[in-house]
C-alpha cells in the first residue's frame, strides 16, 4: 500500500566509515554484522542520519511475515526486509518507515501477558520478544526478535528507540538534509502552486477571484500587527492601513476581519478572531470595524464558527478513540465494532462540520451579502469551514491545483497551528482539526465523485505528510516561524526578500521545498493516482477568470445585520459589542426567519422552498452534501490501513456483506455517469430532505 509510505528525494551519501552506535551501542560489531549494516546504509540513508542500533527480526501481524532488520536512526525507525532495496529516488517513501514524530505509542512484549508501555525516559524492565510501534497515522509495525543469542540487540534497539524519541526535535531532524534531485537545489525553481509569500502572489490571487472592492494590505509586513497572520492579506479598498492597524487591535491576537474568498456572484466570505471586548475603541475605530465587516454590503451575516461544533478537546478525544479502535490489535469484538465506532463520536463531528458548511454555503450563494466567520482564535474551525464552503460553492476549488491552493491559503498562510494541534510540542491544545477537514473532503468525494478532479490518494498523501519532517509546510505554527526557520528573514525589521532564491551559506534547509513538491517525494505512478478517473470536466469552468454575476443571487434586505446561530438567522442591533444603541432594526417581516421544522434546512428558509428542490433549481456550481445517517461513511483506506484483510475486501465473507459492497459500487457507478447538462445537475433535490422524507 503505497499510501502508507511518505518521503522526499535527497542525496544518497553513504558514509565511508561505519557510524558510531551512540550511547546505546558503542562497541564495534563483528565483521558479518558490519557488512549487513553497511548494506542497510547503502540502501539509502540521508546525509546527517546516523544509525543508533539495529537487530534482526520478523515483521509480524501481516501476511506474509517477513524476515529482515529493524533499524533505529536519529530520524526514523525502519524495518528492512531481507533482499529488499530502497528506491534511490525516494529514500523515505516506504511503508516500512516510521518517522520518530509519527510514533504515538511504543510497547514491548515478553511472553503471552507481559507488556510494558515505553515512554520517554523509561527503562526497559525485560528483554522484549517483540515490540509494537503504533503510528499516529493509523499504522502498526509489529516486529518479533529472533532467538539464539541475539537478545542484547533486541534490548539495545528498543532502548535506542526510547531515547531517540525523547531526544529528537525538529531542529535535529532537519540537520544535514539537502535537496538534490536533478540539481534543483542549486538554482531557483518555480513553486508548484502560489505559496502566498509575496505581495505579487496575493495580488494575482485577488485578481483571479475578481475581488474588485478589495486590496492587498502591507500593514503586517513586519508581523507587528499579528504574529500569526501572513504578511499580506485583503482589506476593503477604502480603508487606510492606519485604520486597519488600529481596528485589528480590538480582535483576539490581532486577527481582524479580512477577505477569505470572493464569490463570483458578488458575496464576500470573511474570517476574523473574536472581539477583544476589554479594549476601548474610539468611534473612528468602531466605524472602521463595521466597515470591514460589512465589506461594502448592506446585508451582513455574522457566523459563530464554534456554534454546534465540537471543542478542540472533543476532536482530540474522538481521534484517540478512533485510532485505538482501528488498530489491528483492537480488543473490541467484531459484533460490537460498529457501536464502538459510533461511540468515538468522530463521525458525529464530521457530520456537524458538513451541516455547518452546507448552511454557510447557502448564506453565501443565496443573496449578495457579507458573511463573516468568527472564531475566538480564528485559526482552526474558521479555516475548516471556509475551505469546505469554497469546495461546495466554487467548482475551481475542486480541481487538483485549486484544492492545493485552497489548503495553502486557508491553512498554511492563514496560520493554522499545525505543530501544536498535531501534538509535536507536548502542548495541551492538541487536536487534529486539519485531519478532520481531510475526512470531510473525503465525504464530498464519496457523494460527488464526478465533481472533483483529485482522488482520495491526494488526501492520503496530505494526511501522511503532516507526520513527516521533510518540509516546513506542516511543521510550524505560523508563517513567521516558517520564514525564520527557512532563513527568509532574520528579524522583524529586515526587509524580506521572498521567493525561491539560493539558501544562505551554512543553512541546511532548502527554501524551495514544500509539501506540494510531490515529484520530489513520490513516483510518477503514485502522482498519477492523485487524479480522479471519474472526474467530469464539464463541472468546472475552463477558466478561473471571474464569471458574470448569476441572476439567481438577489440583494439582501437593506441595512440588515444578522447572527447565524443554531441553524437560524436572528436580527442584530449592531455588529460591534461596544455599541450601546437601544434602537431596533427596521426590517420588513418578509426578511425575518421563520421557525424551522426538524426536516427543514437553511436552504428552505433562504429560498422559500417547501422542503424540497423540485420547485427551484440549485444555484449553478453549488453542491449540498448529505449528512444524515448512513450518508457519512468511515474512511476505510485511511483508518483501516493496518488491517489489510479489510482493505482487500476479505472481511466480506458473508452473502449480505458482499451484497453491501456490490450495492456501494453500483451507487458509485451511477454517480460517475456523466450528467446531460449542468442545468439538469442543478435541479437535483436536497439529499438531506429526501432522506428525511423517506424515513
Can you describe this structure?
The chain is of the alpha+beta class and 695 residues long. Among the domains are: 37-182, PH-domain like (Roll), CATH 2.30.29.30; 199-484 and 512-541 and 559-576, no CATH class. It is 32% helix and 14% strand. The protein has helices spanning 31-42, 151-167, 170-174, 199-209, 241-248, 283-294, 312-326, 337-344, 346-366, 381-393, 400-412, 418-421, 433-447, 456-465, 479-485, 524-528, 602-607, 636-639, 644-647, 655-672, 678-682, 687-694; strands at residues 51-60, 66-73, 76-81, 97-99, 103-110, 114-117, 130-135, 140-145, 214-217, 233-236, 258-262, 268-272, 299-304, 367-368, 370-374, 554-555, 560-565, 568-571. The strands form 4 sheets. It has an 8-stranded antiparallel β-sheet. Strands 11-12-15-13-17-18 form a 6-stranded mixed β-sheet, sandwiched between helices. Strands 9-10 form a two-stranded antiparallel ribbon. It is globular, with a radius of gyration of 27 Å. About 19% of the residues have low confidence.
Please identify the structural class as seen in this structure: alpha+beta
What is the strand tally?
A: 18
For the biggest sheet, the summary is: 8 strands, antiparallel
Give Rg in angstroms: 27 Å
Identify the overall geometry: globular
Number of helices: 22
The percent range for strand residues is: 5-15%
N-to-C terminal Cα separation, in Å? 39 Å
Provide the low-confidence segments as ranges. Answer: 4-33, 38-43, 170-187, 489-512, 543-550, 581-600, 607-615, 650-654, 675-685
Sheet with most strands: strand arrangement:
4-3-2-1-8-7-5-6
Helix content: 25-40%
User: Average pLDDT value?
Assistant: 77
Organism: Carlito syrichta (Philippine tarsier)
Protein name: Myotubularin-related protein 11
Region (Disordered): 1-33, 674-695
Family: Belongs to the protein-tyrosine phosphatase family. Non-receptor class myotubularin subfamily.
